[in-house]
Amino acid sequence: MRDEPPTPEVARGETLTPETARDRVLAEVVPLGAEPVRLEDCLGRVTAAEVKSAIALQPFDNSAMDGYALRAADTGGDGARLRLVGESRAGHPAEVAVGEGEAIWISTGAMVPAGADAVLPVEDTSEAEGSAPPDGSGGNQRFVLPARLARQGENIRQAGEDVEPGQVLIPAGRQLRAAEVAVLAAAGVAEIECAQRPRVAILGSGDELIPPGQPLAPGQIHDSNTYALTALAREAGAEVACVTHLPDDPAATRQALGAVLSPELHQIFHPADRKFDAVRPSDVLIVAGGVSVGRHDHVKGALADLGVEERFWRVAMRPGGPTWFGVLPREGGRPTLVFGLPGNPVSAMVTFHLFAKPALRALIGLDPNTGRTQATLATTYRKKPGKAHFLRCRLELVDSGWRAHLTRETQGSHILTSMLSADALAEIPPDADVVPTEAQVAVEIWN
Ligand code: AMP
Ligand code: MG
Fold it and tell me: Of the bound ligands, which one is closest to the alpha carbon of residue 289?
Protein backbone atom coordinates (compact mmCIF):
# COMPACT_ATOMS: atom_id res chain seq x y z
CA MET A 1 0.00 0.00 0.00
CA ARG A 2 1.28 3.44 -0.87
CA ASP A 3 -1.68 5.40 0.55
CA GLU A 4 -0.08 6.82 3.68
CA PRO A 5 1.11 10.42 3.76
CA PRO A 6 4.87 10.61 3.42
CA THR A 7 6.65 10.82 6.75
CA PRO A 8 9.93 12.73 7.22
CA GLU A 9 11.67 9.36 7.03
CA VAL A 10 10.37 8.87 3.50
CA ALA A 11 12.03 12.02 2.27
CA ARG A 12 15.36 11.03 3.75
CA GLY A 13 17.80 9.71 1.18
CA GLU A 14 15.69 10.80 -1.80
CA THR A 15 18.78 12.41 -3.26
CA LEU A 16 21.22 9.61 -2.47
CA THR A 17 22.85 8.64 -5.77
CA PRO A 18 23.33 4.97 -6.65
CA GLU A 19 27.11 5.53 -6.59
CA THR A 20 27.04 6.92 -3.04
CA ALA A 21 24.69 4.17 -1.93
CA ARG A 22 27.06 1.58 -3.32
CA ASP A 23 30.03 3.23 -1.61
CA ARG A 24 28.14 3.03 1.68
CA VAL A 25 27.59 -0.67 1.15
CA LEU A 26 31.24 -1.31 0.28
CA ALA A 27 32.40 0.67 3.32
CA GLU A 28 30.81 -2.02 5.51
CA VAL A 29 32.44 -5.02 3.86
CA VAL A 30 34.97 -7.01 5.87
CA PRO A 31 36.39 -9.68 3.53
CA LEU A 32 35.78 -13.31 4.44
CA GLY A 33 38.51 -15.73 5.53
CA ALA A 34 40.06 -18.53 3.49
CA GLU A 35 39.51 -22.29 3.29
CA PRO A 36 41.22 -25.06 1.35
CA VAL A 37 39.25 -26.20 -1.70
CA ARG A 38 39.93 -29.34 -3.73
CA LEU A 39 40.89 -28.75 -7.33
CA GLU A 40 37.80 -30.56 -8.60
CA ASP A 41 35.54 -28.24 -6.58
CA CYS A 42 37.29 -24.95 -7.26
CA LEU A 43 35.57 -23.75 -10.44
CA GLY A 44 34.19 -20.26 -9.84
CA ARG A 45 35.95 -19.90 -6.49
CA VAL A 46 38.35 -17.04 -5.79
CA THR A 47 41.97 -17.51 -4.72
CA ALA A 48 42.71 -16.19 -1.23
CA ALA A 49 46.48 -16.30 -1.78
CA GLU A 50 48.75 -16.50 -4.80
CA VAL A 51 49.49 -20.00 -6.05
CA LYS A 52 53.07 -20.84 -7.04
CA SER A 53 54.25 -23.78 -9.06
CA ALA A 54 56.50 -26.27 -7.29
CA ILE A 55 57.61 -27.74 -10.60
CA ALA A 56 58.66 -26.66 -14.08
CA LEU A 57 56.29 -26.91 -17.04
CA GLN A 58 57.29 -28.72 -19.16
CA PRO A 59 58.81 -30.81 -16.34
CA PHE A 60 61.46 -32.23 -18.76
CA ASP A 61 62.62 -31.74 -22.35
CA ASN A 62 60.17 -33.69 -24.51
CA SER A 63 59.28 -34.29 -28.10
CA ALA A 64 56.68 -32.24 -29.96
CA MET A 65 56.38 -34.91 -32.69
CA ASP A 66 56.46 -38.61 -33.33
CA GLY A 67 59.84 -39.20 -34.97
CA TYR A 68 63.48 -39.76 -34.16
CA ALA A 69 65.62 -38.18 -31.46
CA LEU A 70 69.08 -37.62 -32.87
CA ARG A 71 72.03 -35.26 -33.12
CA ALA A 72 71.32 -32.57 -35.70
CA ALA A 73 74.96 -32.64 -36.82
CA ASP A 74 74.56 -36.30 -37.84
CA THR A 75 71.86 -35.54 -40.41
CA GLY A 76 74.22 -33.75 -42.81
CA GLY A 77 75.86 -35.21 -45.85
CA ASP A 78 74.59 -37.52 -48.55
CA GLY A 79 73.36 -40.90 -47.49
CA ALA A 80 73.28 -40.11 -43.77
CA ARG A 81 72.17 -43.23 -41.97
CA LEU A 82 71.60 -43.40 -38.20
CA ARG A 83 71.55 -46.58 -36.18
CA LEU A 84 68.35 -47.05 -34.12
CA VAL A 85 69.38 -47.87 -30.57
CA GLY A 86 66.18 -47.64 -28.55
CA GLU A 87 62.82 -46.06 -27.99
CA SER A 88 61.45 -43.26 -25.78
CA ARG A 89 57.66 -43.52 -25.28
CA ALA A 90 55.41 -41.15 -23.37
CA GLY A 91 55.83 -42.14 -19.74
CA HIS A 92 58.66 -44.56 -20.54
CA PRO A 93 62.00 -42.78 -21.12
CA ALA A 94 64.70 -44.51 -23.17
CA GLU A 95 67.26 -46.43 -21.18
CA VAL A 96 70.10 -45.42 -23.46
CA ALA A 97 71.58 -42.14 -24.64
CA VAL A 98 71.96 -41.12 -28.27
CA GLY A 99 75.56 -41.36 -29.39
CA GLU A 100 77.20 -40.18 -32.58
CA GLY A 101 75.52 -41.69 -35.64
CA GLU A 102 72.61 -42.99 -33.56
CA ALA A 103 68.89 -42.26 -33.22
CA ILE A 104 66.02 -43.27 -30.93
CA TRP A 105 62.35 -43.69 -31.81
CA ILE A 106 60.43 -41.05 -29.91
CA SER A 107 56.72 -40.37 -29.38
CA THR A 108 55.04 -37.00 -28.82
CA GLY A 109 55.44 -36.05 -25.15
CA ALA A 110 58.21 -38.59 -24.51
CA MET A 111 61.39 -37.52 -22.74
CA VAL A 112 64.20 -36.48 -25.08
CA PRO A 113 67.08 -38.89 -24.40
CA ALA A 114 70.48 -37.67 -23.31
CA GLY A 115 72.73 -36.89 -26.23
CA ALA A 116 69.92 -35.92 -28.65
CA ASP A 117 69.51 -32.28 -29.65
CA ALA A 118 66.70 -32.54 -32.23
CA VAL A 119 63.68 -34.60 -33.18
CA LEU A 120 63.17 -35.28 -36.87
CA PRO A 121 59.49 -35.98 -37.59
CA VAL A 122 58.72 -39.42 -38.96
CA GLU A 123 57.35 -37.75 -42.13
CA ASP A 124 60.85 -36.46 -42.92
CA THR A 125 62.58 -39.84 -42.69
CA SER A 126 62.51 -43.35 -43.97
CA GLU A 127 63.70 -46.50 -42.29
CA ALA A 128 66.02 -49.14 -43.63
CA GLU A 129 67.04 -52.54 -42.44
CA GLY A 130 70.69 -53.53 -42.22
CA SER A 131 72.46 -56.74 -41.29
CA ALA A 132 72.36 -58.31 -37.82
CA PRO A 133 74.02 -56.15 -35.16
CA PRO A 134 77.53 -57.25 -34.21
CA ASP A 135 76.63 -57.56 -30.50
CA GLY A 136 74.79 -60.78 -31.25
CA SER A 137 71.50 -59.51 -29.82
CA GLY A 138 69.64 -61.01 -32.75
CA GLY A 139 67.33 -59.44 -35.33
CA ASN A 140 68.44 -57.09 -37.96
CA GLN A 141 69.82 -53.66 -37.16
CA ARG A 142 67.41 -50.90 -38.20
CA PHE A 143 68.48 -47.51 -39.50
CA VAL A 144 66.76 -44.20 -40.01
CA LEU A 145 67.50 -42.20 -43.16
CA PRO A 146 66.92 -38.47 -42.69
CA ALA A 147 65.26 -36.90 -45.73
CA ARG A 148 66.53 -33.48 -44.72
CA LEU A 149 68.84 -31.68 -42.31
CA ALA A 150 67.60 -31.37 -38.73
CA ARG A 151 67.96 -28.03 -36.93
CA GLN A 152 69.37 -28.02 -33.42
CA GLY A 153 66.54 -27.89 -30.86
CA GLU A 154 63.94 -28.71 -33.50
CA ASN A 155 60.71 -30.23 -32.13
CA ILE A 156 61.99 -30.21 -28.56
CA ARG A 157 59.68 -28.64 -25.96
CA GLN A 158 62.05 -27.40 -23.32
CA ALA A 159 61.79 -27.96 -19.58
CA GLY A 160 60.50 -24.77 -17.92
CA GLU A 161 59.48 -23.20 -21.24
CA ASP A 162 55.94 -22.55 -19.96
CA VAL A 163 56.50 -22.23 -16.20
CA GLU A 164 59.65 -22.06 -14.08
CA PRO A 165 59.66 -23.71 -10.63
CA GLY A 166 58.54 -21.16 -8.02
CA GLN A 167 56.72 -19.02 -10.60
CA VAL A 168 53.37 -17.49 -9.56
CA LEU A 169 50.65 -19.30 -11.50
CA ILE A 170 47.58 -17.47 -10.19
CA PRO A 171 47.52 -14.24 -8.17
CA ALA A 172 45.33 -13.79 -5.10
CA GLY A 173 41.78 -12.60 -5.77
CA ARG A 174 41.43 -14.39 -9.11
CA GLN A 175 38.22 -16.20 -9.97
CA LEU A 176 39.05 -19.68 -11.18
CA ARG A 177 37.78 -20.59 -14.63
CA ALA A 178 38.52 -23.64 -16.75
CA ALA A 179 41.89 -22.19 -17.85
CA GLU A 180 43.04 -21.67 -14.25
CA VAL A 181 41.85 -25.17 -13.32
CA ALA A 182 43.88 -26.58 -16.23
CA VAL A 183 47.08 -24.75 -15.23
CA LEU A 184 46.70 -25.72 -11.56
CA ALA A 185 46.20 -29.36 -12.52
CA ALA A 186 49.23 -29.33 -14.85
CA ALA A 187 51.34 -27.91 -12.03
CA GLY A 188 50.15 -30.69 -9.74
CA VAL A 189 48.20 -28.44 -7.35
CA ALA A 190 45.43 -30.52 -5.76
CA GLU A 191 44.15 -28.04 -3.18
CA ILE A 192 43.82 -24.25 -3.33
CA GLU A 193 43.31 -21.67 -0.59
CA CYS A 194 40.12 -19.92 -1.63
CA ALA A 195 37.99 -17.23 -0.07
CA GLN A 196 35.10 -18.67 1.89
CA ARG A 197 31.81 -18.29 0.10
CA PRO A 198 29.47 -15.72 1.62
CA ARG A 199 26.38 -17.26 3.20
CA VAL A 200 23.30 -15.46 2.05
CA ALA A 201 19.82 -15.75 3.50
CA ILE A 202 17.02 -14.67 1.19
CA LEU A 203 13.56 -13.81 2.40
CA GLY A 204 10.51 -12.93 0.35
CA SER A 205 7.84 -10.88 2.03
CA GLY A 206 4.14 -10.74 1.28
CA ASP A 207 0.87 -12.55 2.01
CA GLU A 208 0.15 -12.72 -1.73
CA LEU A 209 3.12 -14.98 -2.50
CA ILE A 210 2.65 -18.61 -3.47
CA PRO A 211 5.51 -20.92 -4.42
CA PRO A 212 5.74 -21.96 -8.08
CA GLY A 213 4.03 -25.29 -8.65
CA GLN A 214 0.95 -24.35 -6.63
CA PRO A 215 -2.22 -22.88 -8.15
CA LEU A 216 -3.06 -19.24 -7.54
CA ALA A 217 -6.19 -18.15 -5.67
CA PRO A 218 -7.59 -14.68 -6.50
CA GLY A 219 -5.13 -11.98 -5.46
CA GLN A 220 -2.17 -14.31 -5.22
CA ILE A 221 1.00 -14.29 -7.33
CA HIS A 222 3.92 -16.66 -7.55
CA ASP A 223 6.97 -15.77 -5.56
CA SER A 224 9.63 -15.01 -8.16
CA ASN A 225 12.00 -12.85 -6.11
CA THR A 226 13.39 -15.50 -3.83
CA TYR A 227 14.17 -17.65 -6.87
CA ALA A 228 15.65 -14.74 -8.85
CA LEU A 229 17.76 -13.59 -5.91
CA THR A 230 18.90 -17.12 -5.14
CA ALA A 231 20.06 -17.50 -8.73
CA LEU A 232 21.77 -14.09 -8.71
CA ALA A 233 23.50 -14.77 -5.39
CA ARG A 234 24.75 -18.13 -6.66
CA GLU A 235 25.98 -16.52 -9.87
CA ALA A 236 27.89 -14.08 -7.67
CA GLY A 237 29.62 -16.95 -5.87
CA ALA A 238 27.53 -17.07 -2.69
CA GLU A 239 26.14 -20.06 -0.87
CA VAL A 240 22.43 -19.54 -0.47
CA ALA A 241 20.40 -20.44 2.56
CA CYS A 242 16.89 -19.44 1.69
CA VAL A 243 14.07 -18.92 4.15
CA THR A 244 11.40 -18.50 1.60
CA HIS A 245 8.66 -16.48 3.18
CA LEU A 246 7.68 -13.68 5.57
CA PRO A 247 3.98 -13.04 6.08
CA ASP A 248 2.67 -9.46 6.27
CA ASP A 249 2.48 -9.60 10.05
CA PRO A 250 4.75 -7.62 12.37
CA ALA A 251 5.27 -10.33 15.00
CA ALA A 252 5.88 -13.10 12.47
CA THR A 253 8.24 -10.85 10.50
CA ARG A 254 10.21 -10.01 13.61
CA GLN A 255 10.38 -13.63 14.67
CA ALA A 256 11.57 -14.90 11.27
CA LEU A 257 14.15 -12.13 10.87
CA GLY A 258 15.30 -12.70 14.44
CA ALA A 259 15.85 -16.39 13.71
CA VAL A 260 17.88 -15.67 10.58
CA LEU A 261 19.99 -13.01 12.32
CA SER A 262 20.49 -15.04 15.47
CA PRO A 263 24.16 -15.59 16.32
CA GLU A 264 23.34 -19.19 17.27
CA LEU A 265 23.25 -22.04 14.82
CA HIS A 266 19.86 -22.20 13.25
CA GLN A 267 17.96 -24.26 10.76
CA ILE A 268 18.14 -23.09 7.24
CA PHE A 269 16.57 -24.38 4.05
CA HIS A 270 18.67 -25.25 0.99
CA PRO A 271 16.25 -25.00 -1.91
CA ALA A 272 18.47 -26.83 -4.40
CA ASP A 273 18.97 -29.86 -2.16
CA ARG A 274 15.54 -29.56 -0.51
CA LYS A 275 17.06 -30.08 2.92
CA PHE A 276 17.41 -28.25 6.19
CA ASP A 277 20.79 -27.68 7.75
CA ALA A 278 22.15 -26.13 10.92
CA VAL A 279 24.54 -23.36 9.94
CA ARG A 280 26.36 -20.36 11.32
CA PRO A 281 24.58 -17.04 10.81
CA SER A 282 24.51 -15.59 7.34
CA ASP A 283 27.01 -12.98 6.22
CA VAL A 284 24.36 -11.29 4.12
CA LEU A 285 20.60 -11.11 4.57
CA ILE A 286 18.43 -10.04 1.67
CA VAL A 287 14.77 -9.30 2.22
CA ALA A 288 12.71 -8.54 -0.86
CA GLY A 289 9.41 -6.75 -0.37
CA GLY A 290 7.76 -5.41 2.74
CA VAL A 291 10.47 -2.78 3.10
CA SER A 292 8.51 0.24 1.98
CA VAL A 293 6.14 2.56 3.77
CA GLY A 294 2.83 0.78 3.24
CA ARG A 295 0.58 -0.17 6.16
CA HIS A 296 1.70 -3.79 5.77
CA ASP A 297 5.42 -3.27 5.36
CA HIS A 298 6.99 -4.47 8.60
CA VAL A 299 10.54 -5.31 7.62
CA LYS A 300 12.31 -2.08 8.53
CA GLY A 301 10.64 -1.86 11.94
CA ALA A 302 11.55 -5.47 12.72
CA LEU A 303 15.15 -4.94 11.63
CA ALA A 304 15.44 -1.84 13.81
CA ASP A 305 14.04 -3.82 16.79
CA LEU A 306 16.69 -6.47 16.17
CA GLY A 307 19.54 -3.96 16.32
CA VAL A 308 20.22 -3.65 12.60
CA GLU A 309 21.59 -0.15 12.00
CA GLU A 310 20.31 1.69 8.97
CA ARG A 311 22.97 2.95 6.55
CA PHE A 312 20.60 4.22 3.88
CA TRP A 313 16.97 4.21 2.91
CA ARG A 314 15.86 5.20 -0.57
CA VAL A 315 18.10 5.87 -3.52
CA ALA A 316 17.40 8.42 -6.26
CA MET A 317 16.95 5.79 -8.94
CA ARG A 318 14.35 3.93 -10.94
CA PRO A 319 13.70 1.08 -10.72
CA GLY A 320 14.76 0.41 -7.16
CA GLY A 321 14.10 3.69 -5.32
CA PRO A 322 12.79 2.10 -2.11
CA THR A 323 16.03 0.28 -1.27
CA TRP A 324 17.20 -0.08 2.30
CA PHE A 325 20.59 -1.11 3.62
CA GLY A 326 21.87 -1.65 7.12
CA VAL A 327 24.33 -3.65 9.19
CA LEU A 328 24.04 -5.78 12.27
CA PRO A 329 27.30 -5.33 14.20
CA ARG A 330 28.65 -8.54 15.75
CA GLU A 331 30.89 -8.49 18.76
CA GLY A 332 34.36 -9.60 17.71
CA GLY A 333 33.09 -10.63 14.30
CA ARG A 334 32.08 -9.56 10.87
CA PRO A 335 28.86 -7.54 10.70
CA THR A 336 25.90 -9.02 8.86
CA LEU A 337 25.00 -6.91 5.84
CA VAL A 338 21.25 -6.49 5.46
CA PHE A 339 19.63 -5.48 2.20
CA GLY A 340 15.96 -4.55 2.09
CA LEU A 341 15.23 -4.67 -1.62
CA PRO A 342 12.00 -3.50 -3.25
CA GLY A 343 9.46 -6.25 -3.88
CA ASN A 344 8.85 -5.40 -7.52
CA PRO A 345 10.67 -8.17 -9.36
CA VAL A 346 12.70 -6.01 -11.74
CA SER A 347 13.63 -3.62 -8.92
CA ALA A 348 14.76 -6.53 -6.77
CA MET A 349 17.04 -7.85 -9.51
CA VAL A 350 18.44 -4.45 -10.51
CA THR A 351 19.16 -3.39 -6.93
CA PHE A 352 20.76 -6.77 -6.24
CA HIS A 353 23.05 -6.18 -9.21
CA LEU A 354 23.94 -2.63 -8.20
CA PHE A 355 24.30 -3.03 -4.43
CA ALA A 356 24.32 -6.64 -3.19
CA LYS A 357 26.49 -8.15 -5.92
CA PRO A 358 29.37 -5.68 -5.38
CA ALA A 359 29.23 -6.51 -1.66
CA LEU A 360 29.38 -10.25 -2.35
CA ARG A 361 32.29 -9.73 -4.73
CA ALA A 362 34.17 -7.61 -2.18
CA LEU A 363 33.50 -10.22 0.54
CA ILE A 364 35.34 -12.84 -1.55
CA GLY A 365 38.17 -10.52 -2.50
CA LEU A 366 37.06 -9.70 -6.05
CA ASP A 367 36.95 -6.24 -7.56
CA PRO A 368 33.39 -5.11 -6.73
CA ASN A 369 33.07 -3.41 -10.11
CA THR A 370 31.48 -5.52 -12.76
CA GLY A 371 31.93 -4.49 -16.37
CA ARG A 372 30.98 -1.00 -17.46
CA THR A 373 31.22 0.47 -20.93
CA GLN A 374 29.62 3.08 -23.19
CA ALA A 375 26.90 2.50 -25.76
CA THR A 376 24.75 4.58 -28.07
CA LEU A 377 21.06 4.48 -27.27
CA ALA A 378 18.97 3.06 -30.11
CA THR A 379 15.80 4.91 -29.00
CA THR A 380 14.87 8.29 -27.63
CA TYR A 381 14.23 8.07 -23.90
CA ARG A 382 12.19 10.60 -21.92
CA LYS A 383 12.04 10.95 -18.16
CA LYS A 384 11.60 13.50 -15.41
CA PRO A 385 14.87 14.92 -14.08
CA GLY A 386 15.75 13.86 -10.53
CA LYS A 387 16.47 10.15 -10.55
CA ALA A 388 18.92 7.94 -12.39
CA HIS A 389 17.11 5.42 -14.59
CA PHE A 390 18.47 1.96 -15.31
CA LEU A 391 17.12 0.59 -18.58
CA ARG A 392 17.23 -3.05 -19.50
CA CYS A 393 19.10 -3.28 -22.79
CA ARG A 394 20.30 -5.75 -25.31
CA LEU A 395 23.72 -4.79 -26.66
CA GLU A 396 24.54 -5.02 -30.35
CA LEU A 397 28.06 -4.62 -31.70
CA VAL A 398 28.07 -2.10 -34.57
CA ASP A 399 30.92 -0.35 -36.39
CA SER A 400 31.05 2.50 -33.89
CA GLY A 401 30.93 0.23 -30.82
CA TRP A 402 28.02 -0.95 -28.68
CA ARG A 403 24.44 0.01 -29.42
CA ALA A 404 21.86 -0.43 -26.65
CA HIS A 405 18.32 -1.54 -27.57
CA LEU A 406 15.63 -1.49 -24.90
CA THR A 407 14.50 -5.06 -24.33
CA ARG A 408 10.91 -3.81 -23.94
CA GLU A 409 9.30 -0.45 -24.67
CA THR A 410 7.63 -0.71 -21.27
CA GLN A 411 10.32 -0.52 -18.64
CA GLY A 412 7.99 -0.83 -15.61
CA SER A 413 9.44 -2.54 -12.56
CA HIS A 414 6.76 -5.23 -12.79
CA ILE A 415 7.65 -6.12 -16.44
CA LEU A 416 9.82 -9.06 -15.49
CA THR A 417 10.24 -10.32 -19.06
CA SER A 418 12.18 -7.12 -19.79
CA MET A 419 15.03 -8.92 -18.00
CA LEU A 420 14.98 -11.91 -20.33
CA SER A 421 17.30 -10.75 -23.10
CA ALA A 422 19.00 -7.95 -21.16
CA ASP A 423 22.79 -7.99 -21.32
CA ALA A 424 23.19 -4.60 -19.71
CA LEU A 425 21.60 -1.79 -17.76
CA ALA A 426 21.89 1.59 -19.50
CA GLU A 427 22.28 4.31 -16.88
CA ILE A 428 20.43 7.52 -17.67
CA PRO A 429 21.82 10.26 -15.41
CA PRO A 430 19.54 11.92 -12.81
CA ASP A 431 19.46 15.37 -14.41
CA ALA A 432 18.63 14.14 -17.93
CA ASP A 433 15.12 14.58 -19.32
CA VAL A 434 15.19 13.74 -23.03
CA VAL A 435 17.98 11.45 -24.13
CA PRO A 436 17.98 11.44 -27.94
CA THR A 437 18.64 8.44 -30.13
CA GLU A 438 22.37 7.90 -30.68
CA ALA A 439 23.28 9.61 -27.39
CA GLN A 440 26.20 7.98 -25.56
CA VAL A 441 25.20 6.43 -22.26
CA ALA A 442 27.06 4.43 -19.63
CA VAL A 443 26.05 0.79 -19.53
CA GLU A 444 26.55 -1.65 -16.72
CA ILE A 445 27.14 -5.14 -18.14
CA TRP A 446 24.70 -7.57 -16.59
CA ASN A 447 26.97 -10.60 -16.31
P1 AMP B 1 6.21 -4.64 -1.57
O2 AMP B 1 7.62 -4.11 -1.63
O3 AMP B 1 6.04 -5.69 -0.54
O4 AMP B 1 5.22 -3.53 -1.43
O5 AMP B 1 5.93 -5.32 -2.97
C6 AMP B 1 5.95 -4.56 -4.15
C7 AMP B 1 5.43 -5.38 -5.30
O8 AMP B 1 6.28 -6.48 -5.50
C9 AMP B 1 4.06 -5.96 -5.07
O10 AMP B 1 3.38 -5.94 -6.30
C11 AMP B 1 4.33 -7.38 -4.65
O12 AMP B 1 3.26 -8.25 -4.92
C13 AMP B 1 5.54 -7.71 -5.48
N14 AMP B 1 6.36 -8.72 -4.84
C15 AMP B 1 6.81 -8.67 -3.57
N16 AMP B 1 7.51 -9.75 -3.28
C17 AMP B 1 7.52 -10.53 -4.40
C18 AMP B 1 8.08 -11.79 -4.73
N19 AMP B 1 8.81 -12.49 -3.83
N20 AMP B 1 7.90 -12.27 -5.97
C21 AMP B 1 7.18 -11.56 -6.86
N22 AMP B 1 6.64 -10.37 -6.62
C23 AMP B 1 6.78 -9.86 -5.40
MG1 MG C 1 4.43 -6.62 0.27
Answer: 1
The protein residue with its alpha carbon nearest to ligand 1, atom 16, reads: 343
Single out the residue of 60, 48, 63, 293 nearest to residue 174, CA to CA: 48
Write down the pTM of the prediction: 0.89
Nearest Cα neighbor of 182 from 37, 35, 36, 40 is 40
| Planar angle of CA 233, 176, 64, nearest 5 degrees | 155
1 alpha carbon – ligand 2 mean position (Å): 8
HSE (CB half, 13 Å, CA atoms) of 34?
14
**Residue 296 CA: which ligand is closest?**
2
CB-based contact 132:139 (threshold 8 Å)? yes
Alpha carbon of 344 to ligand 1 centroid (Å): 5
* Residue 223 in contact with ligand 1 by CB distance below 6 A: yes
- In the reported structure, the alpha carbon of residue 165 is separated from the centroid of ligand 1 by a whole-number distance in angstroms of 56
pLDDT (tens digit, 0 to 9) for every residue of the chain, 447 residues total? 444 444 444 445 568 999 999 999 999 999 999 999 999 999 999 999 999 999 999 999 999 999 999 999 999 977 899 999 999 999 999 999 999 999 999 999 999 999 999 999 999 999 998 876 666 666 779 999 999 999 999 999 999 999 999 999 999 999 999 999 999 999 999 999 999 999 999 999 999 999 999 999 999 999 999 999 999 999 999 998 766 689 999 999 998 899 889 877 555 555 556 666 555 678 999 999 999 888 999 999 999 999 999 999 999 999 999 999 999 998 888 899 999 999 999 999 999 999 999 999 999 999 999 899 999 999 999 999 999 999 999 999 999 999 999 999 888 889 999 999 899 999 999 999 999 999 999 999 987
